[in-house]
Amino acid sequence: MSFHTEIQIPEFSEKMDYSKSMMYMGSCFSENIGQKMVDLKFNVDLNPFGILYNPVSIANSLKILIDKRFFSEYDLFQDQGLWNSFYHHSRFSDVDPDVVLKRINSRIESSSEFLKNADFLVLTFGTAYAYELKSLGQIVSNCHKVPASQFMPVRLGVHEIAESYRNLMEELWSINPKLKIIFTVSPIRHWKDGAVNNQVSKSILLLAIDRLKKGYDEKVCSYFPAYELVMDELRDYRYYAEDMLHLNSVAIDYIFDRFSKVMISKDSEPISNEVVKIIKAIQHRPFNSNSAEHEKFLNSTLKEIDKLTSTFPSFDFAEERKYLEQELASFKGSAT
User: Fold this and answer.
1) Of 21, 53, 277, 300, which sees the most CB atoms within 10 A?
2) 21-264 adopts what CATH topology?
3) Mean pLDDT, to the nearest integer, of 195-199?
4) For the chain, what are the domain ranges?
């Protein structure tokens, strides 16, 4: 007997695997799922502008990558001692404008090239509400704690979103004909908009994506029901973090499991299992760190990394290797 409503998600005809590259952009939900793919050593470019919430900001960011438009000091502004960009998350901000520009432009350089060759683009819309900077008349990606009086809140419409993305998708396919675009709607509620407005917002996003999908074959444009999984299968506050808005690790793991089953090829499973085994080995804390068994365990894990990277040179185990080598060095140091 099933004690919850289970959503039937059809398997995607085009699968992700270790030979494919994928870009994830959008809200913190996109960050969560994309980070899991990064951890499993898939070839991922994750949020090259940082976390983005509304469809217009995501579209603007993609256009910058398509045009490979670099930023100058005139694209930045200073507030409370920090230099920021209205197109970027605060993770790019710094007290030194040159540092900010270096972070922004180096990422545009690499992500623009990545997008031209990517196999998948996963876009997660968080909210249909956006903020327009009054002085410039443009929607910003991040307000950076600038006083609210400088912005005008706007609610994007279904037609506005669908039409802007229809044009954008054609531009994307003109530079990368093999690109498959997958839309999702974040299940995380934007409570500052209010309960009713949050529901209206999510409805706008769902309708816009539905309108977009109808114009294209599912092989090139599709939808993954992350929002529906939380609303229908995980409708219980035990799956939420302490703020009762964001999802906890159990919910994220569950959604990623459902995502994996329909989106990731079965051939990738043995490889990802080996990656997980190495990650768990790194997280393992021995009872006796000076024992011969622990030294053997460290060397064995390094050999497993060597074995995987010889088959998949693109796998980045630099941090894991550094940790294991430091552990071995301290082990040998304590033995002498």
Assistant:
1) 53
2) Rossmann fold (3.40.50)
3) 95
4) 21-264, 272-335
